[in-house]
Amino acid sequence: MRGWLFDLDGVLTPTADVHMRAWSRLFAPYLASLAVAPYEDADYYAHIDGRPRYDGVRSLLTSRSILRPEGEPDDSESADTICGLGNRKDMVFRDILRSQKVAAYEGSRTFLDAVLSRGCSVAVVSSSQNAQLVLSAAGLDDRFDVVVDGAYASAAGLAGKPSPDTFLHAANRLSLAPSACAVVEDAVSGVSAGAAGQFGHVVGVDRGVGPRALREAGAHTVVSDLAELLPLVPPIACR
Questions:
Q1: What is the mean pLDDT of residues 139-159?
Q2: Which of 157, 155, 161 shows the shortest CA–CA distance to 126?
Q3: What is the mean pLDDT of residues 76-95?
Q4: In 3D, which of 11, 42, 20 has the Cα closest to residue 93?
Q5: Which end of the chain, N or C, is less surrounded by CB atoms within 10 Å?
Q6: Is pLDDT of 232 > 80?
Q7: What's the Cα-to-Cα distance from 208 to each of 33, 187, 212, 235, rounded to whole Å?
Q8: pLDDT at 227
Q9: CA of 47: how far to CAs of 35, 56, 86, 223, in Å?
């Protein structure tokens, strides 16, 4: 593979845990106030993980047969709309992020530096609106010239995961065919996007969703840490 397209949260950094806590802080009291089925960690993997923020809100509410107006992206965090709830989650996420340090997974940093040392091209493809903030906090921003995050995708009119559009766009910006690129994802929606885009290889990183779900979504290889991929790093330069 000449190009490696990495998801961010849960693949390069453990910020997926921060996202999980932020979603729980949003939906646990919200669903309780409506006297519907309570929010559980399984809801994160089934309806939210890997999706753009507003899509995650919409999917979770739909699972409880809750209808809310779409609203606008600039809605207040107190607005009872899809966008308002999503913005409230983002506020909680940023509050948590400011209160704790972010460190990249050691195995992910080692693998990333290994492929870079061979001249491979790399990109971050994330649904998060905060990708640049997280990359900077983790000290990884100097490694990526191409970052396709939620804000970029929205401005460019790209459909979010499980659509392959953001990954395909990143490959194009690297001037590589999808067949020459590997997608590295921890979310079922992201793995599905990689499979739909017919990329050369799709790696599923199991951070809790389970190997079976990742394989069924289309992962060719499933690992629990990117250090397991080091034997795949080419002994000679990618180019």
A1: 94
A2: 161
A3: 94
A4: 20
A5: C
A6: no
A7: 28, 9, 11, 32
A8: 96
A9: 19, 6, 14, 23
Which residue among 7, 43, 49, 165 is the active-site one? 7
- Widest CA span of the chain, in angstroms? 59
Q: What is the pLDDT of residue 101?
A: 75
Q: What is the pTM of this model?
A: 0.78
Residue 7 is a catalytic residue? yes
Three state DSSP letters for the chain: CCEEEECCECCCECHHHHHHHHHHHHHHHHHHHCCCCCCCHHHHHHHHCCCCHHHHHHHHHHHCCCCCCCCCCCCCCCCCCHHHHHHHHHHHHHHHHHHCCCCCCHHHHHHHHHHHHCCCEEEEECCCCCHHHHHHHCCCHHHCCCEECHHHHHHHCCCCCCCCHHHHHHHHHCCCCHHHEEEEECCHHHHHHHHHCCCCEEEEECCCCCHHHHHHHCCCEEECCHHHHHHHCCCCCCC
* Parallel/antiparallel/unpaired status of strands 201-205 and 3-6: unpaired
For the residues 182-189, what does the mean pLDDT come to? Answer: 96
**Which residue bears the tokens 């990117």?**
226
**Candidates 9, 49, 149, 206; catalytic one:** 9
Give the mean pLDDT of 51-79. 95
